[in-house]
Design a protein that fits this description.
Three copies of one chain form a homotrimer. With 147 residues, the first copy, chain A, is α+β, with helices and mostly antiparallel strands. Chain A is built from three helices and six strands.
């Protein structure tokens, strides 16, 4: 791996660490900024993809408020990163996602295992998600999404 | 850490992400290609080490078909990577391995925690496993293997 | 991300892999050497912060001996690393920590989910922890520590 490519790969790791920390700490507006204004969040656990930063933020805010009300701390781990640079200059980043859940005063446990496939773009030097495709391991793979 | 060494370290991360994804997606022939033709897979959960790519592939295929028949999605996470370059030019890579398991329609959970120690070699530019030593955390450490 | 910064980031990953492996293998004296002589380990699961390498080592030794006596193998995973270089030259490294636990002959499971925030310094080329702040996800965030 070239040193330049290695640095891009590392930058994506860092991007995900920041992005997930923002979500898990309930900093939803900052989290939503990590998506393009017209970004798409396509999760097969949702009835249909969320389109645009406003919808993405609004969906996350509801989930975040519910967790806070329930006294539950979620942690999103992304790992096993593979990156491919596409001819159009976008980056295709595949990861595994592990979601941990800890109730206040209670026992931490695995909440869910999913895969995550992102199309990332560089927007004035800053990485952002153009399209995120999340597939839960407990659901059949039938719905392949539009990716 | 030098930038060159950092790039090698990153390349190994990437190698593992691809390797585990191939296994978890049931692409067993491609997965087996990530081992040397005379590679060895020594797991203390097996009665004896698997020797050669054919045996390694055959063992993985049976496990993969059983999981598919049972509707179970496994995810192999490798992490906490330490790498040492050996005088003979091989790389010694130590990781923790976490295996998650999700039944279709069911709850994800931790299946197993192990350590993994690999001797990696570069074969015409491509990393491959010459010898893998997997030790399950639930079994006594008595069997140290031949490593 | 610059190639230089990427290499520092990678070095911290490697530092954590080694540090956690030392702890999980019960090599407590070597583990304690990864802290500064006057380092501080502040965990909100403890009644008060451990101050100085001797106290840190002694606390870890007791925990390690208890686990060995109980036949339990712990694995500390750190991930989702974010690093910031501070004006004083120290590094501020934030991670998620996942602790897995496997009893001999038994089932691996999630023991705990925490966050970890470290002030790291370079001591004659070697990274060490000056101050570690661990916050358990099951405890209220009220105690913010001195960080």
């Amino acid at each position: 791996m070239s040193e330049e490519r290695s640095a891009v790969y590392q930058e994506i790791h860092h991007f995900y660490a920041r992005q997930m920390r923002l979500l898990d700490e309930g900093r939803v507006a900052e989290w939503a900024e990590t998506f393009e204004p017209d970004g798409v969040f396509d999760a097969n656990g949702h009835p249909e993809p969320l389109r645009g930063r406003e919808m993405i933020e609004s969906g996350a805010r509801k989930a975040s408020e519910r967790l806070a009300a329930d006294g539950v701390q979620r942690r999103h781990w992304l790992g096993m990163l593979e990156v491919a640079e596409r001819p159009d200059g976008t980056l295709f980043a595949q990861t595994y996602a592990l979601i941990l859940s800890t109730p206040r005063g209670g026992q931490a446990s695995v909440h869910m295992s999913t895969t995550c496939a992102d199309v990332l773009v560089r927007d004035e030097g800053t990485l952002r998600v153009r399209r995120r495709t999340v597939r839960r391991d407990d659901l059949a793979a039938a719905d392949g999404g539009e990716n």
